[in-house]
Write a structure and sequence with these properties.
10% strand; 14 helices; alpha+beta
């Protein structure tokens, strides 16, 4: 079997930790075959994931050896992550896993991490991807629960001063019948976690412009090969400035940055999916400090889901109630309509980035599978631009040069 040196290194990593990578018993393959190691579907990054079956005794031994407790019921396998350290945020992955666990967000346990070489052994959260696991007719209940889970990130104190204010708000809520104190997230963050949170990148003007210009470069210029005029460039600058300023004017909180249906796993409570199931969150290593409505835009206007506008509005309305009840913002300062606009402008920024990102994945990385989602993403942008007079010219540009061509 012809295998890459990287793959051989991965198998050697497993062998060094006494994790059987083959069905052979005893294993005498010299790390030349994968055995029971199965590669999972591709990721948009350069990470690769493999599923490795282990019997219960082997898994128990792994937990005892690493002194790591699993967070969900064992599903019969573990996940092996290959994340090349020169391109992937492995330090952040481990540090933010700790933070989110202490924030009572369900994330996979990390049994072993080799940050130098970029290999990790993770808990397997199963096969129930969120969007494929919601029982028909139960969508509102599941999405509302998803929003409740998201408040654990959005309300997360970024420092001890914020933590103190949150506790003061919690004390007040317990004595105020007008505040639903039961929705308030609880945290067990420590000094190490606050250091991690303090190091979160700011989703500032440079960051936002970098994302928006992915669309300019990879969709307008490299895919459609548009010869942008000076007027076109001026129009794009004006639109991008408006979007950036709008996002920066929002309250800035811990932001997952990719909170959508493919990064949420449903872990059953028992043998069947139900509203009692827990939701596990994946792909969190790119967290930043950014606009309060961004993660809501990610799930409410999901690139991979045809979301009816009425349903999206119900999600936004529920989020307004829960976020204000959690003290993430003051409903006396931010109205329901203002909050809706915050979500829409975040959705626009995200989808402009995605229009470029999916084309970059195709042209640069040979991953053409993401192109199928572009018409949906473009439709979101065009529709949401109607809510902002400042984006009228930008919408017209998209209608003239992009619509019907991707």
């Amino acid at each position: 079997m012809n295998v890459s040196s990287r793959y051989q290194d991965l198998l050697a990593f497993l062998k060094s930790h006494n994790i059987p990578c083959s069905d052979c018993d005893p294993c005498d393959c010299g790390c030349q075959c994968s055995g029971s190691l199965t590669q999972l579907n591709g990721d948009a990054s350069f990470r690769r994931y493999y599923r490795l079956k282990l019997n219960t005794d082997e898994f128990t031994k792994l937990c005892e050896t690493t002194k790591v407790k699993p967070r969900v019921a064992y599903v019969g396998s573990i996940i092996i992550m290959d994340a090349p350290p020169e391109t992937q945020k492995n330090q952040e992955f481990v540090a933010l896993n700790r933070v989110l666990d202490h924030a009572n967000v369900l994330v996979p346990a990390i049994f072993i991490s080799d940050l130098e070489h970029g290999f990790m052994v993770l808990e397997d959260m199963g096969d129930f991807v969120y969007i494929n696991s919601i029982p028909e007719g139960k969508e509102p209940a599941y999405y509302f629960k998803t929003i409740r889970e998201l408040t654990k990130i959005g309300a997360m104190p970024l420092n001890q001063e914020q933590a103190l204010r949150l506790e003061e708000y919690r004390t007040k809520a317990l004595n105020d019948p007008n505040i639903e104190s039961h929705v308030l997230p609880k945290y067990k963050l420590d000094e190490v976690d606050y250091q991690t949170l303090a190091a979160l990148p700011n989703f500032d003007d440079d960051f936002i412009k970098m994302e928006l210009n992915i669309c300019t470069e990879w969709l307008f210029e490299k895919t459609l090969k548009l010869n942008l005029t000076q007027d076109d460039k001026a129009m794009l600058d004006k639109a991008y400035n408006f979007i950036s300023q709008s996002l920066q004017s929002q309250p800035q909180v811990a932001m997952h940055r990719d909170y959508h249906s493919r990064n949420i796993m449903v872990t059953p409570a028992g043998n069947e999916i139900s509203i009692l199931s827990r939701f596990a969150i994946l792909d969190y290593q790119d967290m930043v400090k950014g606009p309060i409505a961004y993660d809501l835009a990610s799930i409410g206007y999901d690139c991979y889901v045809d979301m009816e506008d009425d349903f999206a509005q119900r999600i936004c309305g529920f989020a307004y109630e829960v976020y204000s009840a959690c003290g993430i913002f003051d409903s006396k300062v931010i109205s329901r309509e203002q909050f809706k606009s915050m979500i829409l402008i975040c959705a626009i920024e995200r989808h402009i980035k995605v229009l470029g990102l999916f084309n970059r994945l195709n042209l640069r990385d040979g991953k053409s599978g993401y192109l199928q989602y572009l018409p949906r993403v473009l439709n979101y942008v065009l529709k949401n631009c109607d809510s902002f007079a400042e984006l009228k010219d930008f919408k017209a540009f998209l209608e003239q040069h992009v619509q019907g061509k991707i």
